[in-house]
Design brief:
Blueprint (H helix, E strand, L loop, with lengths): L15 H8 L7 H13 L3 H21 L4 E5 L9 H8 L4 E6 L2 H10 L7 E6 L5 H8 L10 E5 L11 H10 L6 E7 L5 H14 L11 H6 L5 E2 L5 E2 L17 E7 L2
Helix pairs in contact: 1-2, 2-8, 3-4
């Protein structure tokens, strides 16, 4: 039985964090999320392996940043906690690491309070805010993080929920502008130019069931590269998930329709 039952009543629309939870094999979702997740995955069978590969990329990226000396992380769009959350990976490498999580779903907040528990040498905090609320996020994060020192900004599978008309590129720039030189951006994003027909159909199915402010937009490699303008992009650049510093068990799979990259602010 789920130890953290979801509050009633059931919502009318699917939410990204809960749909993602379905794809990760979790239990913290409603029937509307289950339906959206299953129908989207049926239209695009690469979704579930992509979600799992995305989680593995997050872990590799956090370890890379920890090895580079980063001890502060701002994870926006964290979703419902699962295995190997950002603070767990970071604090295994550097126990003094501090992590602030941000998400807009109150259900995520319920689970975050229970499960996103820091080790004694570090610290974690949770901010309930929309990814578009840059100033609110950074002001709240500054209670835990020292923004005058480098931060690892995690925008992992979140920017697709910000429409072109809302200018996600400007939102990303504004987040980075307030972070210190030496900070990093960790980014992943659904691809519009890898297995394009399946991605388009799965997004259509999901968007029909999502709230208007949570619809998703896949983007091309060139559009994803725009998020990294003015930054030093680490090798191997903007690549599919399994191509970014794969481990021995990570078999290359260029059919997974997500771009990812890590870049440094000078």
């Amino acid at each position: 039985m789920n130890a953290n039952p979801l509050p009633a009543p059931h919502p009318a629309n699917a939410h990204p964090a809960r749909v993602y939870n379905v794809w990760l094999g979790g239990k913290d979702h409603y029937p509307v999320d289950q339906e959206a997740a299953e129908l989207a995955a049926r239209a695009n069978p690469t979704i579930v392996p992509s979600v799992r590969a995305n989680r593995a990329f997050l872990g590799r990226a956090v370890r890379h940043l920890a090895a580079a000396g980063i001890r502060q992380f701002l994870d926006i769009g964290t979703g419902i906690p699962a295995a190997d959350n950002t603070h767990e990976v970071a604090q295994r490498a550097a126990p003094e690491s501090r992590v602030v999580y941000v998400d807009s779903d109150p259900i995520v907040l319920t689970h975050a309070r229970a499960l996103l528990v820091s080790g004694p040498e570090g610290q974690t905090d949770y901010v309930q805010a929309d990814a578009r609320d840059v100033d609110a996020i950074l002001d709240a994060a500054s209670r835990t993080l020292d923004l005058s020192r480098p931060v690892g900004l995690m925008l992992v599978a979140i920017l697709q929920y910000i429409k072109d008309a809302e200018d996600p590129w400007d939102i990303t720039r504004r987040l980075l502008d307030r972070l210190a030189p030496g900070s990093y951006l960790v980014l992943s994003h659904p691809a519009a130019d890898v297995t394009a027909p399946e991605v388009a159909e799965s997004m259509r199915i999901y968007n029909e069931r999502a709230a208007s402010n949570a619809s998703a937009t896949p983007r091309t490699q060139k559009e994803v590269e725009r998020f990294l303008e003015g930054l030093e992009i680490l090798e191997p650049g903007v690549v599919t998930l399994t191509r970014w510093h794969p481990g021995p068990a990570d078999a290359p799979d260029d059919t997974l329709p997500m771009w990812c990259a890590v870049a440094r602010k000078d």
